[in-house]
Design a protein that fits this description.
- The protein is an alpha/beta fold.
- Helices cover 48% and strands 12% of the residues.
- Strands 1-6-5-2-4-3 form a 6-stranded mixed β-sheet, sandwiched between helices.
- The termini are far apart.
- The structure holds adenosine-5'-triphosphate (ATP) and magnesium ion.
- Adenosine-5'-triphosphate (ATP) binds next to helix 2 and helix 5.
Length: 291
C-alpha cells in the first residue's frame, strides 16, 4: 500500500530529509492514480453519508504545510462531492486580540464538528508550536510570569504534551483526527510562487511576506520534524504526503481520510422493532390516501 510509508504513528521516527516530495519515487502511473482518486471520492461520499446519519463520531482533518504546498486546492478537490451539510472548513490565521487573550486551544474547541460531521482545519493549533516556535512569538505573550519565565524549550515541550493530551481527550470523546503534512520541496515552492507572481489571476495568493517565511525553510523543516515526531500516536497519526505533484498528493490525502472513515465504520441507524410497527401504520395510511 502506497500510503503506509507516509504514515507516522509514533512507532518509527520521521526523518524529513529522507522522505520524498516527488511522486516519481513511487513510480506510479498518473492515469491510474486519477482513476483511483475518483473511486476514493465516491467511497468517501458513501461513508460520509453514513457518518452523518449515524451521528456518533466526529472527524477532524488537520492540514498543515509550507506556503503554496496546495492546502486550499486539496480541500477543494478531495472534498468535492461530499455533502456540504456534513462538513465545515476553518482556516486558522494569525490570532487576533480576542484569541490571544485566551489559551491557544480556545479557538479550536469552538470549531469542533458535532458528532456525525467532518471539519477541515486549514492550518490548526499546530501553528502554535510551528510558526510561534520559529518566530519565538511565545516571548511576546501576555501571560503569567510562571509561563513567560520558562525557557523556550520547556514551553514548547509542554505544548507538545498539551497537544497529545488534547488529541487523546478528543479521541476518548468520540472524535477521530487525521493529521496531514503536505510535504512540498523548496524548488516546487519557488515554481508556484513564480506562477503566483506571473499570472495576474493568481497575484492575490501571493504575499511578499511569503518570501520571509521561505528564507526560514530549514528552520521550519526542523521544527515540523520535531512536532510530528512528538505528536504522532497510534490513535492520531500524521501523514507526511509528497506534494510536488498535486494529483498524487490528492490521491494520498483521499487514501488517508478513507482509511480513517473505514476504521470508524459508520452505519445507517437501524430502526428499533417498536418503531417498525409505526412505520407499517404510516405505510397503510399513505396507501389508504390513494383510494
Ligand atoms: P496560502 O497558502 O494561500 O497563503 P495560508 O494558510 O498561508 O494560505 P495566510 O492568510 O497567507 O493563509 O496566512 C495565515 C498565517 O497565519 C500563516 O502565516 C500562519 O502561520 C499564521 N498563523 C496561523 N495560526 C497562527 C498562530 N496561532 N500564531 C501565529 N500565526 C499564526
Ligand atoms: Mg500564506
Amino acid at each position: 500500500m502506497l500510503l503506509k510509508k507516509y504514515c507516522f504513528d509514533g512507532k518509527q521516527k520521521l526523518d524529513l530529509d529522507k522522505l520524498p516530495t516527488d511522486s516519481r519515487k513511487d513510480s506510479v502511473d498518473r492515469e491510474k492514480i486519477l482513476k483511483r482518486t475518483a473511486e476514493n471520492q465516491k467511497s468517501m461520499q458513501e461513508l460520509q453519508d453514513k457518518l452523518y446519519a449515524d451521528g456518533k463520531e466526529g472527524l477532524i482533518i488537520v492540514l498543515q504545510a509550507m506556503d503554496a504546498a496546495g492546502k486550499d486546492s486539496t480541500v477543494k478537490h478531495v472534498m468535492s462531492g461530499v455533502n456540504p451539510q456534513g462538513i465545515d472548513t476553518f482556516s486558522f490565521k494569525q490570532p487576533g486580540a480576542e484569541e490571544l487573550s485566551h489559551d491557544f486551544l480556545w479557538r479550536v474547541n469552538r470549531c469542533l464538528p458535532r458528532y456525525g460531521k467532518m471539519a477541515i482545519f486549514n492550518r490548526s493549533y499546530y501553528e502554535d508550536v510551528l510558526v510561534v516556535q520559529v518566530h519565538k512569538m511565545n516571548r511576546t505573550y501576555h501571560m503569567a510570569d510562571r509561563i513567560t519565565g520558562q525557557k523556550d524549550r520547556e514551553f514548547f515541550e509542554k505544548r507538545y504534551r498539551q497537544i497529545r493530551n488534547y488529541e487523546e481527550y478528543l479521541y476518548e470523546n468520540s472524535y477521530r483526527t487525521v493529521k496531514i503534512f503536505l510535504n512540498v520541496s523548496k524548488e516546487k515552492q519557488k515554481e508556484r510562487f513564480m506562477e503566483r507572481i506571473n499570472q495576474p489571476e493568481k497575484n492575490w495568493k501571493f504575499s511578499h511576506s511569503d518570501l520571509k517565511e521561505r528564507s526560514l525553510w530549514e528552520e521550519y523543516h526542523k521544527v515540523y520534524q520535531e512536532v510530528i515526531n512528538e505528536t504522532a500516536t497510534k490513535e492520531n497519526p500524521w501523514y507526511v504526503i509528497p506534494a510536488d505533484q498535486k494529483w498524487y498528493a490528492r490521491y494520498l490525502v483521499s487514501e488517508a481520510i478513507l482509511r480513517t472513515l473505514r476504521d470508524m465504520d459508520p452505519h445507517y441507524p437501524k430502526m428499533p422493532e417498536s418503531e417498525r410497527a409505526l412505520l407499517e401504520e404510516c405505510r397503510s395510511a399513505l396507501l389508504r390516501e390513494e383510494d
